[in-house]
Amino acid sequence: MTRPEQRTALLAVVLMMPFGLAAHPQGQTDPIPPFSVPGATQPRVAIGPGGEIHLVFIRGGNVEIATSSNGGRTFGEPAIAIDANGKARGGSQRGPRVGVDASGTVYVSTPICFDEEELKKRYPTPELFLVASTDGGKTFTAPVQINEVSRKAPEGLHWMAVAPSGEVHLAWLDNRPGVKGTALYFATVKEGGSKVGKNRLIREELCECCAPGLGRSENGTLFLSYREGGEKPSREIFVIGSKNGGKSFGRPVQVNMAASRLDGCPMDAPAVAVSRNGKSVAVAWMDARTDGRNKDVYWTIARKGLFDKGAPLSDSTEGYQGHPSLAFDGDGVLHAVWEDERDKPSRIYLRSSSSPDRIVLVSDLPEGAAGFPSVACGEGWIAVAYEVRLGRAVSAVCRILPVKGDR
Length: 407
What we know:
Oligomer: single chain
CATH architecture of the domain at 44-322: 6 Propeller
CATH class of the domain at 44-322: Mainly Beta
Structural class: mainly beta
CATH topology of the domain at 44-322: Neuraminidase
Distance between the termini: 29 Å
Strand order of the largest sheet: 1-28-27-26-25
Low-confidence stretches: 1-29
């Protein structure tokens, strides 16, 4: 796969639109208020085959999940997906992931430490675990460990993608013996989350604290994204693809056409998404190409195997930007959200490939500083989850936004 100089069609004038009326899933016409969980951190969101919204987060030292079956109008009482005895920790994209297969089975992965001796340390090393629910997120299976070599994934940085068939793909950072620096490992879990496949080394010498990205189509096309590591003046962004559901991978392709100018770890994961038909791949990332200090977000889309030149995701270069999240909807439209500090405190913004001249402000200023967003697509609407901090208080928020008008 090559990267010719293709022009990305982004209009010069951007109309800033604050978040107003919520979406209208399932024929609803009145606004849907945001759903907030006080005390929750590191939320991620996924949408099931019937439009169910599953919001996973850390709260009270456990991994919990809240589910809505009516398009976000109401959510049920959060259930414990993984009981960590109040010892679960997270932050800076170290937290749970959630996905749903075509049957509605819900999968949750997360880094957790259960070892009592290890927990006595100031920074205990977690292992990567997976659980599954066949009753819509009410109850979950016992945790299954994914990484074969214990205490060698200290950052707990990982990503997960779920196939319609129920295959669960996981990618994570690992520093087990015999690898150079921080390595990217991959595994596929089958049989309802109970049978863990062999851990496979994909690449070595990755950025130490930038989680990998992972996206999958419905037909088995799969892509990993990562930021390289090592002693380099500029750590670049790469993707590596598989056409057979992760059984084998091709060669890495660099996606940032200008040097990132970051020689250390920025703790900012590159995001990757694959369209449902597998014909389009998108990547978003943060770099400091302008002056080596100012951090902005960029995105690029590959259609028919060719990445375009890439362009700024935001219309502003003021303040820090980062932590992008991507998702394709059923019509092949790409939706991107990111954290943006143009006006402090930081807020969450949305941009879609079908309307690149329009940017939507998602979070509300009174909520506090918003960060670490996650996006998932329904039919004619999207769900955006993020963490907010106001003083010492922290919450997880989920908002529903319309996208039908963007077609």
